[in-house]
Amino acid sequence: MPIKSRIRTIPHYPRPGIMFRDITTLLKDAEGFRLTINSLAERYREAPIDLVVGIEARGFILGSALAFALGKGFVPIRKKGKLPGRTLTAQYSLEYGVDSIEIHVDAIAAGQPVLLVDDLIATGGTALGAASLIERSGGMIHECCFIVDLPGLGGSARLQDHGLACFALTSFESE
Length: 175
Ligand code: AMP
Hints:
single chain; seven-stranded mixed β-sheet; Rossmann fold; two-stranded antiparallel sheet; binds adenosine monophosphate; alpha/beta
């Protein structure tokens, strides 16, 4: 498990009871980072996507490296108030709070196929919020991809219930 074994778990961060899956230990390892991006690039090399869309902040690290590897453009979905142009906003709930994310209204053209990227899917609130922004922009989501799925929190099932394909390189049950 060359990817999973490089992810560090920090118990009780940022709140008691949360098992935080820390990918900084994977990213600082050159082989781990390369394996992560190469595994995703291999999956999407022939996929009909125009853009990679990454969610702030860890989705930027993966999404930009993946977009570069695939020879595609990169679009950021940012926390509220950070993008300078006209934006669309979505509110979403996460495993430990509520937040708002935004995308530039003109970032995705109508009908453009995109790949949505984040580091981890837990309850799916963040990814569903991001997916709603892409859909309101007129974009078509080819797939939502992650390094880590926490299936016990139901996010990947929620995405699939919404008709969104979901892929993760590894998963943590409740350990
Ligand atoms: P969710 O919206 O519940 O699917 O949460 C996903 C977002 O929150 C991702 O952007 C993750 O970076 C972060 N996140 C949620 N839970 C965890 C966790 N247990 N470990 C690390 N990151 C998490």
